[in-house]
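Problem statement: downstream parser choked on a complex file, so we are re-checking the raw output for the adenosine-5'-triphosphate run. The parser issue turned out to be on our end (a line-ending mismatch), but while we're here, posting the original submission so the record is complete.
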Amino acid sequence: MTLEAVDVRRAYGDELVFDGVSLSVSPGEVVAVIGPSGVGKSTLLRLLALFDAPDAGTIAYEGTDVWALSDERRLEYRRRVGMVFQEASLFDASVRRNAAYGLRVRQPWPDRIRHEFARFVGGANGTGDAIEALETVGLAEKGDQNAESLSGGEAQRVAFARALAYDPDVLLLDEPTSDLDPRNTAVIEDAVLEARDRGIGVVVATHDMHQARRVADRTAVMLGTEIIEVDETETVFDEPSDGRARKFIDGELIY
Ligand SMILES: Nc1ncnc2c1ncn2[C@@H]1O[C@H](COP(=O)(O)OP(=O)(O)OP(=O)(O)O)[C@@H](O)[C@H]1O
């Protein structure tokens, strides 16, 4: 299952963010999108997540132009994509319930009622997938704690676990470690690689070029209103074909 943006354009009013941008992610690969602040990385992720439609070009899932479908069919595709935003939004409940949230709304009703019933009668108050996802981000022991008592870094890890728990085809991460210390950053990066090894396609938008180098199979460099370079990560860092990409990577381009 491949998700791709093909020749997409996006503007906010008269303000063009990008045009002619193409990017794909396949199962079991990590693609990093790097570029200066404000270049449009989050905007591109929102298009891939099917939150917004491109002004031109297509977003295709398994070759299907998703915006040509009915709202209902498009929603089915949207549910296969998990997105983690820069700001973790958790609600006032246990960490385990937060991690299981996506699961509960996505399950068919009978399952959902069954889980709610089990919880009501004092049985499991989370599912195996949510617990496993919490283990992946090193927070299994905090399952019973209220999410509002977590540190910022822990909250970001729970938001990640929530996206992972419902086993999406594609996971889109917007600056997933921007507020994290090195230890928490390493936890998230390991979880990204674990997701990839499970066959999930992952796109990571990041300011952190070192992170791209550590986790990404392919890297796209966004500059101005374009993706100026997209290739195997090693190639982009060691021998980029675009001179501007080289300058950006060497820290010589000031924006
Ligand atoms: N809802 C919006 N309305 C108007 N302009 C917007 C909106 N969202 C983003 N923009 C503008 O679009 C441009 C791209 O923003 P975007 O958030 O996609 O960049 P980014 O590369 O993700 O930045 P950062 O790395 O700082 O998160 C910016 O100039 C931003 O101000």
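For whoever reads this later: Residues 31 and 122 are 42 Å apart (CA to CA).
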